[in-house]
Amino acid sequence: MEFNLKEVCAQFNVETTIEGYGNGHINDTYLCEAAPRVILQRINTKVFKNPHEVMENIFNVTDHLRKKIIKAGGNPDRETLNVIKTRDGKNYYQLDDDNFFRMYKFVEDSVSFETVENPIQLYHAGTAFGRFQNMLDDYPADSLFETIVDFHNTPERVKQLEAAISKNAAGRLVAVQNEISDALDYAKYASKITDEIAKGTVPLRVTHNDTKLNNVLFDKDTFEGVCVIDLDTVMPGSVLYDFGDALRFGASSGTEDEQDLDKIWFDLEKFEQFAKGFLGQTATCLTEKEIELLPMSALLMTYECGIRFLADYLNGDTYFKVHMENHNLYRARTQFKLVKDIESKFDEMHKIIKKYI
Ligand code: ADP
Ligand code: GN1
Ligand code: MG
User: Fold this and answer.
1) 147 within domain boundaries
2) CA 287, CA 283: separation in Å to the nearest integer?
3) Domains contained in the chain, number
4) Domain that residue 28 falls in
5) 62 and 42 part of one domain
6) Are 40 and 143 part of one and the same domain?
7) How far is the CA of 230 from the centre of ligand 2 (A)?
8) How many angstroms is it from 211 CA to the middle of ligand 2?
9) What is the pLDDT of residues 263-309, one digit of tens each?
10) Residue located nearest, by CA, to atom 17 of ligand 2
11) In contact, 356 and 276? CB cutoff 8 Å
12) How far is ligand 3, taken at its centre, from the CA of residue 228, in Å?
């Protein structure tokens, strides 16, 4: 369905020129050159089946953050996302059954990174995600909607891969036998976090669940983390999801879709910087089991993302945005390469964690 973005902006009382923006894999993001500038997003309703619940969560969580930031003497227009309401006072605009739009204040004088040029960026990202976790520690997790059910339930993700293998919807199965063998080899780890959640040794907290480096905006001059964005998946979860998922992307030596696997390894210096920043904000609140599983969380979140990319490849690229042929397959391969490397570095990772506890 075609839509007129200017007319959509008018629903938010914004008159503007509009251009595509950002590198997210999920939503369609536009920069609107109004004064002040704003971000318009079309929510991906294939991924988020209930945009109303997504926006309820985001509005309530950012409202909580805003109050905390003001109390701490910070700048709430920069340090959290700010939802701009429609002219009808709603958190989003529904054009029709498939097209839901939301608008945020643009966080000025900030930059986002697709790759890590200097490990210190990971320290700042860790501090930003750790602070986010901290500011939400008194938010009632059970009042949040689960916007994607079983999002980080790795055993469920294994089942989804198995279903994609059985269905072979895109006819790509024969070409990915090596990747499937990697995926099934590492399934032995899949329940390491969910088992502990079931036992109660790992608590459910309010977590971000998508702690990719480009979901933090950094100050353009100091490079300190300013604002955690992409809040669609803020839900009850484990702190291990946020720690592990950030390292999956941030501590890789290369890009998520690098085709030359010799360029991909898990960089312990980046790991250390992230751990230092994140644990600097959160260490005193973590349980023994959470601390013990921090290195494992990096492996598991990387593995889980790898099997999601592989399943999407088999399904015919229906979930993640792709920009070239075999894109999801290249992404899956980097994740499995990282998993192998992480597995060989557990001892060193534990030693690093000890320094910051
Ligand atoms: P996706 O869910 O598709 O990843 P994001 O919400 O992460 O979408 O947005 C995509 C990109 O747009 C981000 O990585 C960031 O660069 C940019 N962006 C999003 N929101 C803002 C904002 N409020 N201010 C400045 N840049 C933003
Ligand atoms: C997606 O939206 P984005 O690009 O920040 C995905 C994450 C994956 C990531 C892989 C809602 O994140 O779970 O880890 O791609 N988000 C969703 O790059 O599925
Ligand atoms: Mg994003």
Assistant:
1) yes
2) 9
3) 2
4) 5-108
5) yes
6) no
7) 9
8) 9
9) 999 999 999 999 999 999 999 999 999 999 999 999 999 999 999 99
10) 26
11) yes
12) 10
